[in-house]
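Q: Given only this backbone (410 positions), what sequence would you predict?
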């Protein structure tokens, strides 16, 4: 059973958080800190596969190989990407200062940055912000919310969630997380710019945590497509302190409830990111049913959610199912076009646009236009080739998206 709690990362015992303003951005909070009160604990991560990687990604992916983190520090406003040797020194300095103030090793600190590419970090402000964040560390509800706000760039709302689950041995365990992301999102992360930081009090080995994270990322963040652009800074980090005292989860003794709980948290954060896409007026959820295999289902779902033509059609409330069929056709999934069915669903009802390869009537199109007035739109596609299913999330393509991204550096 999954119980959704009010709040975010500070709902997990043993973790504190802070979000402060250092002046990296023009306005708002811009330095985030999450700290384990028990020092370095089991940790795992997933990172962008973009060949152009930010200095924080390079540093943190190296630090986490040893399987333990005690803190995560992040800034918003500047991504510290394409900054060469100086950028790496600055990322290391963020880890070193955080480690010294929290009395741990720099290798036990995860570092993340998000924002403008190609600019150097204002390190005096960053360092002052880190010192202030250490002083502000707290396990209050407000502390988690401030941490979520501090990693926002073009996001319009903070994104956080916390749940309690019951493991197979009956032990209650909490999992909490925060995330950011609104544009430049089409992640392909391997063990969001998209950032997500997850904490839990479950007792789990580093190997088991790593094994649980990758499939959860594949089912959630890797199924978002806001604009088809893969960021240089995508990162997901998870820390587990073991305070729940459950029977230790290992690779040999997995716990289905924990795996499902972690996936639930990541899927909820992914949904929040898609809903808050830059300039978005509609959330698009694509459900592929009865695909030949899971890879085909995921490939087809991502293609539709990422199609600029589908996104533009949803924005204009135009039930142009041909764009959906076209995206399916170039996705790489195997299917028979004469057998597919396409359905639009929202709170205003549902309507078939294509049934077993046959287009619907003009009356159905009128019904579809009404359904497209809803804020959240579902596109259901039945491929009729197997039993695999997958879901992807995206948003519509609007005038505001173009406006936001035409002025990003100015």
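A: Predicted residues:
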């Amino acid at each position: 059973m999954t119980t959704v709690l009010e709040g975010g990362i500070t709902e997990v015992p043993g973790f504190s958080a802070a979000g402060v303003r250092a002046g990296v951005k023009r306005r708002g909070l811009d330095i985030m800190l999450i700290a384990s009160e028990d020092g370095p604990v089991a940790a795992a991560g997933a990172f962008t596969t973009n060949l152009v990687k930010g200095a924080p990604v390079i540093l943190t992916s190296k630090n986490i190989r040893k399987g333990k983190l005690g803190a995560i520090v992040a800034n918003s406003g500047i991504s510290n990407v394409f900054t060469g040797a100086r950028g790496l020194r600055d990322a290391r300095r963020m880890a070193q200062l955080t480690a010294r103030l929290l009395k741990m090793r720099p290798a036990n600190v995860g570092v993340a940055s998000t924002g403008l590419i190609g600019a150097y970090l204002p390190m005096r402000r960053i360092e002052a912000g880190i010192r202030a964040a250490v002083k502000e560390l707290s396990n209050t509800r407000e502390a988690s919310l401030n941490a979520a706000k501090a990693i926002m760039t073009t996001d319009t709302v903070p994104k956080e969630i916390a749940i309690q689950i019951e493991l197979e041995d009956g032990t209650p365990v909490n999992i909490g997380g925060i995330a950011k992301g609104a544009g430049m999102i089409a992640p392909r992360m391997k063990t969001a710019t998209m950032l997500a930081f997850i904490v839990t009090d479950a007792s789990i080995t580093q190997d088991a945590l790593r094994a649980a994270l990758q499939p959860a990322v594949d089912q959630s963040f890797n199924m978002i497509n806001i604009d088809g652009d893969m960021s240089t800074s995508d990162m997901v980090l998870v820390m587990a302190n073991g305070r729940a005292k459950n029977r230790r989860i290992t690779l040999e003794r997995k716990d289905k409830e924990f795996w499902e709980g972690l996936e639930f948290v990541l899927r909820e954060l992914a949904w929040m990111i898609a809903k808050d896409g830059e300039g978005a007026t509609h959330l698009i959820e694509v459900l592929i049913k009865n695909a030949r295999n899971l890879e085909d289902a995921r490939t087809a779902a991502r293609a539709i959610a990422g199609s600029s033509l589908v996104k533009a059609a949803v924005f204009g409330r135009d039930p142009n199912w041909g764009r959906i069929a076209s995206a399916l056709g170039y996705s790489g999934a195997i299917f028979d076009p004469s057998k597919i069915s396409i359905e639009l669903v929202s709170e205003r009802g549902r309507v078939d646009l294509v049934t077993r390869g046959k287009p619907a009537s003009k009356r159905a199109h009128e019904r579809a236009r009404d359904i497209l007035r809803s804020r959240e739109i579902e596109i259901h596609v039945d491929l009729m080739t197997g039993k695999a299913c997958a879901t992807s999330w995206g948003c519509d393509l609007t005038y505001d998206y173009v406006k936001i991204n035409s002025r990003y550096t100015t």
